[in-house]
Design brief:
two-stranded antiparallel sheet, 166 residues, 4-stranded mixed β-sheet, alpha+beta, single chain, Beta Polymerase, domain 2, 20% strand
Length: 166
Amino acid sequence: MTSLFDKFLELIDRFEKEGVDYVLIGGFAVILYGMPRLTQDVDIFVRNDSDNIDRLHKALYDMFSDDSIREITVEELGRYPVIRYGSPDGFVIDFIVKIGEAFTYDDLNYEIIEVEGRRIRVATAETLYRLKKDTIRPIDQSDAAFLAELLRHRQEQEKEKAKEKE
């Protein structure tokens, strides 16, 4: 049986092969920053233009061979805050193109995190914190607290490095 993490890595491989413009957000992103937590899906921010959605279709179809992938369209993504895709084998991906008026794909800052030889586009810790800090779900509040502490720790390290250079 393939693990959720293995499926996630395969998805990233397909995205890279097809050139999908994406940024990982959500639980998997927070996990990659070091927070031990569980998640049941993958949250992916995608650029909502026809070329990118065509590449997304190809990547997903190559992975899942599922005709329902065609239901993920530029129009549908623009209409709903989240489009949830559940593969025939139970792998769940939430596709997001905007969060209210505050965030679109172009508003997200991301960095590359290497995992098992893969270069994954992950929203920066600062961006994830901004996405999660004002939400009401307890898991998001926990994520925001972890990210705030991570950012505080990074700032302290930067101050120490600056002092060493003096």
